[in-house]
Each structure stands twice: as structure tokens, then as C-alpha cells.
Amino acid sequence: MPYLGAAAALAGATFLSCSRLPRRRCRNPRCRGLVKALEFDVQLQTEEAVRAGTGSTSGGADAAMWREIEALPWKGGQGGNNPDYECLRAELRRMAPPNGRAVLLFRNRCGCPIAKLEGWGVPKSKRRSKRSTLGLPADGGVR
Asked: CA 75, 68, 111, 38: dihedral to nearest 10 degrees?
């Protein structure tokens, strides 16, 4: 009789563990639950997109994506200034467009971003180089 109770308990535990399949979705309400998601992703943002995304509340899915990226925590904490990730940030700076940024997104198994690391591109010079007319004749060099 005790063996019958143990067998029933084992059968019940087996049934519960098999019927409850592992979930691929996280707690994010917009999680897609991808099966073979990438572990990380690089997003490039140009200067125009940075300007448009800073103060605009309107926009489509692209603006919503960048707002979601802005809300992510920094990888390694400390506001992204962790020296362990400096070599990655140097590579991101090389990849980033001028006055733009490159964002490395670390993703969950389901595909949802969980942390970011960003590198800003080289700033464009705000001064325009003008040709100096000092020393040049006014008629274009013909005498």
C-alpha cells in the first residue's frame, strides 16, 4: 500500500513537470518569445535620427524602439564607464557615424534587450574652413 501511494505521487509529479512546458517569453508585455534569438545586436543611429529622437514624442515604431533603448540599464553599471568594457566601446566608436552613435544591445534568450553599451561617433567640426584671401591677388592670380 505505501508503494502505491509513492507511485501515485511520482506519477503526479511527472505529469505536472511534463505538462508545464518551459516558457520562452519573459515578463515584457511586448516579448515575442523568439526561439533562436541573437545574444547581442548592434544598432547604428545617425546624427539626424539622434536630433529627431531627443525631443520628439511622435514617431512610429522606430522612435518607440529608441525610447525603449534609452530606458535600458548600462552594461556593467556605473553609467557605462566600466573599464572592463572600454575595448568594446572603442570598437563602437569606430563603427558609429559622425555625430551619431552605435549601441550594442545585450539580449535575453527570448530576444528582448536587457542592457546596452553605447559609443558616440567622432564629432563633426562646427567651424567651416574658409579659404583665406590674404596674399592672393583680387583678380584670381592673373597679372
From this structure: -60
